[in-house]
Write a structure and sequence with these properties.
This protein is α+β, with helices and mostly antiparallel strands. Strands 8-9-10-14-13-12-11 form a seven-stranded antiparallel beta sheet, covered by helices on one side. Helix 6 (164-176) packs across helix 8 (213-223).
Length: 587
């Protein structure tokens, strides 16, 4: 009896206070909960609406949705919170919220209580005060009458005008809302009709199974509610000959650099949009496919598909997800790229769907001369950063199958390992004690030269040379660094090490160390970086050839042994070394 009486009192009091709260700065809401899914939030709202009034749904931003009661004056809101908590009708952690906490309203459909417009079906509008309580005429606000919706016959006629893609999009909206679970085929059969009727019933309209133009727009707005602030707009770029929806709320046009028109982040959200436009043929298309995968905006991991006249690229890492599509038609290659921060899938997929659906070719293609040529860099392609390896070191071929010996430093924590930048490789064996990694190429290679390993130690104080990519591949070819053999052991007497007197660069680590006859006497180790002891710059170490050979034979790799010989001229040694020394890159 107490619960019934309280509910009656609140119904009368709240209907009056809700109407007055619309124009007051003291407007509050009782927030019941927040959900990271719009579908779940709608389900929760239906549950609350079955047992109480004034239930609303609002977008909070960031992919979150709030369920709230109101609007109320503050004192009424606090009473609602107190009594409904006591009755166990709302969560114990419900709290008072302000209108400023919310971005937009998605429930009830068509409501806009944040801006003082009550929904047409709201009980606030139905509860009329007694004649003696009628407010002064100046205080009465009226809502403009809404145009009547289409009849079923009119709805069928407007539906018949939809394209197949538009019908498929409607099925996608119904599927997203949890009403449709069949094929997205654009055919409105019994399953689609039942899902339409279910949506209509949940949204307070007659469940005819034929959605009107207004209802189709309503479900689309529900679907796109998460995009509040993205400001999707149809952009037409006549230079590129492309028309499509672009999230202008987060990106703005930056520049044109053939074959791209770039839209870069205009705020805190790190998003990028590229329009792709150039004349060409299949060779041009396939070249673009390869080039796109060298750019930072297309991360290494993700599915890729290249067809006869089109391609798609998906790249993802911990920071971003990138989607690219391009196709060749009538000698013109056109497409787009969307780069979006990882972890924001709901908004990303909504925006990507809208971009795909709206993409349209119009007359025009980018002029090859388009762009600013004043800022040039080998690390840029058409103004976009080329992906560079995290680290590059040296290595050398040890057999005709393309096995490479390098330093462990070159392969630590890599998403991908390449030999000479173009050939993918994988680690077949690691020896942490020696600091050696053995790499196997993923595709067959035919090395120009293979290391011939020396047996036994060379003479102390004899001349030696290291072949390596001193500047991590910047020069495009290995260089020679000359020095002397200081000792055939390490500082602590390690039998597998040799001490060298030379001054290599970090990129030289992993490279072969030669004697004057061109035999490989070891592999250069990286300098210690633990800071415990700082050795002179010219003091460096190499794993000797005997230790390398034993490791390779253990792994079943047949090595070539040096047969001695006379000293080579520096230029001949350099030529021999360049054929076997490789750049090992960690991506």
């Amino acid at each position: 009896m107490l619960r019934t009486l309280l509910s009656l009192i609140f119904s009368i009091t709240f209907f009056i206070s809700a109407a007055s709260a619309q124009s007051s700065d003291d407007t509050v809401w009782v927030q019941l909960e927040a959900q990271p899914s719009l579908t779940v939030a709608q389900d929760r709202i239906r549950g609350y609406a079955a047992r109480m009034q004034d239930v609303n749904g609002f977008s909070l931003g960031g992919g979150w949705y709030a369920v709230a009661l109101g609007p109320y004056r503050r004192e009424d809101g606090e009473r609602v919170l107190q009594v409904y908590r006591a009755e166990g009708l709302i969560p114990i952690d419900a709290y008072i919220a302000r209108s400023a906490d919310y971005r937009s309203q998605f429930w009830p459909v068509g409501a806009n209580l944040l801006n003082g417009v009550a929904p047409a079906t709201s009980q606030v509008a139905e509860a009329q005060p007694a004649p003696s309580e009628q407010p002064a005429e100046a205080e009465v606000t009226t809502q403009a009458p809404q145009e009547p919706d289409e009849t079923v016959r009119e709805a069928r006629a407007s539906e018949a005008a939809l394209t197949r893609d538009e019908k498929k999009r409607l099925q996608e909206y119904l599927q997203w809302g949890g009403y449709y679970n069949s094929a997205i085929d654009g055919a409105f059969g019994r399953g689609t009709r039942n899902s339409m009727a279910a949506w209509q019933a949940d949204n307070g309209v007659e469940p005819t199974g034929v959605m009107t133009t207004r209802q189709r727009d309503s479900i689309r707005q529900q679907y796109l509610a998460v995009l509040k602030g993205m400001d999707l707009r149809l952009a037409t770029n006549t230079d590129a000959g492309i028309e499509m929806q672009i999230p202008t709320g987060v990106v703005g046009k930056a520049t044109t650099e053939y074959p791209f028109v770039r839209f870069e982040a205009s705020g805190e959200l790190p998003a990028t949009v590229l329009l792709i436009s150039q004349s060409g043929d299949k060779n041009t298309l396939f070249g673009l496919y390869d080039i796109m995968q060298t750019l930072e905006v297309v991360p290494l991991n993700g599915p890729r598909e290249r067809l006869k006249s089109s391609f798609t690229l998906v790249g993802e890492n911990a920071e971003v997800i990138s989607y690219t599509q391009a196709s060749l038609e009538d000698g013109e290659i056109k497409g787009f790229t969307l780069v979006w921060p990882a972890g924001d899938e709901e908004r990303r997929t909504r925006i990507l769907d809208e971009m795909k659906a709206s993409f349209k070719r119009i007359d025009g293609v980018l002029d090859p001369a388009a762009g600013d040529e004043t800022a040039q860099s080998i690390n840029l392609i058409a103004g976009l950063q080329v992906r560079n390896p995290r680290l590059s070191r040296s290595g050398f071929f040890v057999d005709n199958r393309g096995h490479v010996v390098t330093t462990i430093e070159a392969v630590n924590a890599c998403e991908k390992i390449t030999i000479e930048g173009d050939y993918d490789a994988e680690v077949s064996y690691l020896d942490e004690a020696l600091g050696i990694a053995i790499l196997s190429p993923k595709s067959s290679l035919a090395p120009m030269g293979v290391a011939a390993l020396r047996s036994g130690a060379p003479r102390l104080k004899s001349d030696v040379a290291v072949s390596g990519y001193s500047y991590e591949g910047v020069l495009g070819a290995p260089t020679m660094t000359f020095g002397q053999l200081s000792d055939v052991r390490g500082l602590r007497g390690e039998q597998e090490l040799a001490r060298l007197a030379l001054a290599p660069q970090p990129g030289d680590a992993g490279g072969p160390v030669f004697d004057t006859a061109g035999s490989v006497l070891g592999m250069l180790l990286p300098r210690a970086t633990d800071g415990a002891q700082q050795l002179p710059v010219e003091v460096n170490f190499a794993v000797n050839a005997d230790a390398i050979r034993a490791l390779l034979e253990q792994e079943g790799i047949v090595v070539q042994m040096a047969d001695g010989g006379s000293a080579l001229a520096p230029e001949d040694l350099t030529k021999q070394a360049s054929g076997m020394t490789v750049l090992v890159s960690c991506w």
